């Protein structure tokens, strides 16, 4: 950790974004309604940077920008704009601009663009496509949300399995509809069942008369169009796939998923887990307004109000104890909050391990026992510190003993709860990142107050 | 969120891992010392699955496995094994097996394997490589840890910029050292400065006489060997790069980074942020033992002991108030803990937005004001609930008023603190995921107790 920090000082910095100076010039051009200046400033910028710019503009400037720049808006920029404001952007663009942009897109990007729109808006956009593209997009939309079928592009490069390298190269040279990016030629049988694939590198490096069958890759595996996109991303990362054919329920080739799309999904899944663990909706975005932000966060706050009331109830059972020794009120949050941290630690490791399939039924028992032991060890360590603090700072060794004993109980509950709760939720089919935190901290809060006040009323009073 | 859950039921399941039945058969073969059965069981398994298996075995079974299976251990399996146990595995394998495995690896995998070893172990492995491979690995190791120079592979396919498609294909057909996976031919000038690149797809689809210059890609950008690997992964994801040439300080081509490596880094960086936010060392792994686990988690627990003592100090200033109205002791955690949740929510959004460069100096002021307003709104909402609960459940409207007012203060502190703290830490060059949580929850705890008890002693007593 420290090492990482130290070496980072030596590393080069490049922020991969528009410079502050560029941004100021762009803002000036927008404010002065200077379209040509804007075009000039953005001429060499990547679509992703232009999309970032649009996201970061204030809403009035964004409207001004769109009316000045609409001639230059293309499919690439539109695909890059974040979901949270894309609909707003599309509404502000002239219909012809959107239609033209959509015609340039690959089918997977069109699907991504329109899947959250309502039927009539979808139809307006689909009408801009030619028949075969529209059919491809409509077929994708028949698959469930977050499935491989929604993620795939329909543009696939195939060859009959009996072809040679030379035949394949001649075919590729004569086709003019090839996708922008493709990494494999997929070999299919006459019923379009994928049988293997060949990398373009091997195709280029082999002699013309080599049969494709002799240079296929071991890494070949097909993906069902109904597979969850998170599993697809996991498989790409685990098996180092670059592209993978997608098949329908009859094992027929319907599309291909490429690693750049799998990488985006991996990024989104991580972001979702990160935000869910912090009890934030994964729809949250920095460009949201205050009302939207407040509304997204309120539900978990209200739930916490309820779980915190359970702790209050626990404490209220010991009002007599607290009344007789008021210092207990000051000390009791120590046990509860340290338990909360330990629970979150154990939980985070378990949630990640579940996501990466490192925590399975094979090793669950071992991991639970490991947590139990680690909780006991840390409980003991913290108890020693608390006993010393009680003795030498508060001058009350018995209070130190009570704090320490309560801490040991709560650390054990925290560490084991941190792995049992996500394991249980995942068995029930609930995303462990979503609800585990609330369960675990409620447990550690209640246990922390109960153990401390219970032991105090038994030992001290 | 709910929608996501609902549709997942329709999605196909494939766990991309060894089945439970296979695992049992493998364990049996290990226990019976049946090497041939083990070979047969693992014959068609992917290296990544075998590596997962090795990670999940208990340490004694792992030793037995390695002595039975050592003949089959190859470079691919060795590269896939998690850092946390790889050194242990290498120590248990015969030296010739490791040497043979390393010879098969790409230079980037060798670097990954040996970078954490001490000098003498590194030398033993480097000695197994031939001269040019060893030189490549040694050059990579001269770049800082976590840099593009460590991530790149040295095997690069280049062509002079003036070549045609035909010349390039002829050259590729006659080379026998081509890397397993490559996606671009990089055009270099006579001093090995990269000038552009051509996708293999374009190379295959173009006529032989086409000059390479006419089919280069716009996406071309070089990466400095000193660039942080996290920035590299960010750039790959943002600009949809598939491979990118890496250059030294003199802009000379020294290697290439491919998207599969960038995807692994993206995955690791997310995992690191996730664990850091939960105050767990990013070295944590489910295969760690109890002692190791306890030691990794103890530092943050001790820090929390200290910060929780600050809250205890705040409360102890109000001992007189609590003594006169003991119910305050039961109620005070409500304000503090709900503030903690709100702080974590705001923090998580800010930490992600900083990582994705969505929170910049351009919009920082707007985001801070947005958080202020959202905190006020949610504080008001929660205050209404607390007032009603105070009135109708506790029968004490004034206690409800105090709870509500304290909640409003603490929600504002939580929401703004959640964005100001990570912004401040990131300005100071500290990873905001690492320390923000402790700062923010200390703030919300102290503020929660102070506002509630302060208002109570002013209004109620």
UniProtKB/TrEMBL annotation, chains A, B:
Source species: Paracoccus limosus
Domain of life: Bacteria
Gene Ontology MF terms in the entry: magnesium ion transmembrane transporter activity; metal ion binding
Function description: Acts as a magnesium transporter.
Protein name (record): Magnesium transporter MgtE
Name of the gene: mgtE
Subunit details: Homodimer.
Domain CBS: 152-214, 215-272
Subcellular location: Cell membrane; Membrane
One GO CC annotation: plasma membrane
Predominant location category: membrane
One Pfam family here: CBS
Membrane topology: Multi-pass membrane protein
Annotated family: Belongs to the SLC41A transporter family.
Membrane-spanning segments: 298-316, 322-351, 372-393, 399-421, 433-460
Keywords per UniProt: CBS domain, Cell membrane, Magnesium, Membrane, Metal-binding, Transmembrane, Transmembrane helix, Transport
Source lineage: Bacteria, Pseudomonadati, Pseudomonadota, Alphaproteobacteria, Rhodobacterales
């Amino acid at each position: 950790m420290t090492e990482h920090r130290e070496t980072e000082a030596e590393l080069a910095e490049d922020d991969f974004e528009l410079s502050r100076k560029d941004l100021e010039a762009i803002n000036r051009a927008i404010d002065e309604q200077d379209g040509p200046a804007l075009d000039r400033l953005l001429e060499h910028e990547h679509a992703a940077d232009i999309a970032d710019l649009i996201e970061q503009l204030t809403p009035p400037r964004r409207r001004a920008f769109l009316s000045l720049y609409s001639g230059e808006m293309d499919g690439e920029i539109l695909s890059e704009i974040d979901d949270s404001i894309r609909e707003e952007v599309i509404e502000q663009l002239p219909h012809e601009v959107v239609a033209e942009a959509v015609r340039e897109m690959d089918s997977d990007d069109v699907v991504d663009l329109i899947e959250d729109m309502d039927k009539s808006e979808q139809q307006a956009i689909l009408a801009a496509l030619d028949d075969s593209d529209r059919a491809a997009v409509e077929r994708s939309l028949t698959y469930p949300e977050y499935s491989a079928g929604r993620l795939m592009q329909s543009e696939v490069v195939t060859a009959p399995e009996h072809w040679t390298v030379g035949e394949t190269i001649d075919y590729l040279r004569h086709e003019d509809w090839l996708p922008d990016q493709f990494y494999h030629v997929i070999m299919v049988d006459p019923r379009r069942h994928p049988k293997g694939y060949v990398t373009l590198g091997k195709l280029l490096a082999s002699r013309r008369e080599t049969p494709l069958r002799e240079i296929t890759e071991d890494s070949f595996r097909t993906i069902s169009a109904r597979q969850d996109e998170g599993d697809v991303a996991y498989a790409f990362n685990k098996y180092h796939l670059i592209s993978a054919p997608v098949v329908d329920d009859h094992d027929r080739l319907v599309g291909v998923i490429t690693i750049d799309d799998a990488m985006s999904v991996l990024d989104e899944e991580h972001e979702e887990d990160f935000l869910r663990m912090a009890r934030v909706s994964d729809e949250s975005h920095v460009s949201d307004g205050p009302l939207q932000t407040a509304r997204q966060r309120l539900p978990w706050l209200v739930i916490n109000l309820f779980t915190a009331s359970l702790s209050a109830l626990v404490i209220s059972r010991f009002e007599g104890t607290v009344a007789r020794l008021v210092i207990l009120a000051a000390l009791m949050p120590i046990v509860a909050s340290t338990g909360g941290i330990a629970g979150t630690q154990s939980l985070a490791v378990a949630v990640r391990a579940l996501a990466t399939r490192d925590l399975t039924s094979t090793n669950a028992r071992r991991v639970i026992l490991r947590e139990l032991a680690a909780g006991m060890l840390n409980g003991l360590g913290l108890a020693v510190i608390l006993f010393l603090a009680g003795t030498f700072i508060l001058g009350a060794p018995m209070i130190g003993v009570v704090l320490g004993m309560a801490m040991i109980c709560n650390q054990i509950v925290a560490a084991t709860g941190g792995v049992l709760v996500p394991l249980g939720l995942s068995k029930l089919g609930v995303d462990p990142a979503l609800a585990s935190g609330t369960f675990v901290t409620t447990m550690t809060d209640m246990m922390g107050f109960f153990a401390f006040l219970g032991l105090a009323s038994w030992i001290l009073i």
